[in-house]
Design brief:
By secondary structure, this protein is α/β, with parallel strands linked by helices. Helix content is 31%, strand content 19%. It contains 9 helices and 12 strands. It has helices at 3-9, 11-17, 24-33, 56-71, 93-103, 118-124, 131-137, 171-180, 251-261, and strands at 40-42, 76-79, 84-89, 112-114, 125-126, 142-148, 162-166, 184-188, 212-215, 232-235, 241-246, 265-266. Strands 1, 2, 3, 4, 5, 6, 7, 8, 9, 10, 11 and 12 form a 12-stranded mixed beta sheet that branches.
């Protein structure tokens, strides 16, 4: 069964699980979801570095649980290298809708995609920069905006021909994206217009609408404002140029690579469907 059809068959269950509708699937879990996520799993060692034995069992449990929820069309909370995020299968239109609804986010604001490897970028995007540039920035705290390919779900950011690509420098979410084997839609774990989250407790209001929360501990020092800036978002869709869409937490190092190593020129007046 194709991802789109599998997602369609699960549409009602996803909506119910996100607290968006009534129905048998929602009834089975509604009591738990009103109080807490269906499941909260803590990563051994925080998750930024891959766990080794004897902690590997807990890592594998969290990985399997997250993959299962994503394949069922659910929304899960995960740690990244910059902030806590909400992830779902980018191929599942119902799950994308659930993310927008639970965040109160405008559908005019795009979602990024999270991939497991730099090689995957070439499948889902049309790349006009050297491979070395991609590998200099990814994995890392950057979002690279590129022209999207037809491989991506048309319901993902239908207002723009571009897509933001993330490969966080965080072991757990890299493993998750690789094992899941498809693009993950990724956005910050917070209500729109509210502060981003550096711990799972900071987005506790969203827990009732999430099937799974992966707790990787505090990101950064969990307090400093600079850790809440999120990834640096760079438009690389125009050959030979770059545009900064969001300065984020890695502006200086990113622009140094783009300008000094690869000779890209600033792109003025760049923007996206946001």
């Amino acid at each position: 069964m194709s991802p789109a059809r599998r997602c369609g068959a699960l549409r009602a269950a996803v909506a119910a699980g996100a607290g968006l509708s009534e129905g048998p699937a929602g009834s089975a879990r509604r009591g738990r979801l009103l109080r807490a996520p269906s499941r909260l799993l803590r990563l051994p060692g925080g998750g930024a570095v891959r766990a080794a034995s004897p902690e590997r069992a807990g890592w594998t449990e969290a990985l399997r649980a997250a993959v299962a929820e994503l394949r069922a069309g659910a929304v899960v909370a995960v740690p990244t290298d910059t902030l806590y995020g909400l992830a779902c299968a980018a191929s599942c239109s119902a799950a994308l809708d659930a993310v927008y609804r639970l965040k109160g986010r405008s559908h005019a604001k795009p979602l990024a995609v999270c991939l497991g490897r730099v090689a995957d970028v070439y499948r889902y995007c049309r790349v006009s920069v050297p491979e070395g540039l991609l590998r200099d920035l990814l994995p890392g705290p950057v979002t690279l905006v590129l022209e999207r390919s037809q491989e991506l779900n048309r319901d993902l950011n239908p207002c723009t021909p571009l897509v933001g690509v993330r490969i966080p420098d965080h072991a757990f979410i890299q493993d998750l994206a690789q094992v899941f084997g498809e693009p993950l839609a990724l956005t910050s774990a917070n209500l729109s217009s509210q502060a981003s989250s550096l711990t799972v407790e900071e987005f506790q209001d969203l827990w009732p609408q999430l099937s799974l929360v992966i707790d990787g501990g505090p990101i950064g020092d969990g307090q400093s404002p600079e850790y809440r800036l999120g990834s640096t978002v760079v438009d690389l869709s125009v050959p030979g140029k770059f545009g900064i869409i969001r300065p984020g937490c890695a502006l200086e190092s990113t622009t140094a690579i783009l300008r000094q190593k690869y000779g890209l020129l600033p792109l003025h007046g760049s923007g996206s469907c946001s």
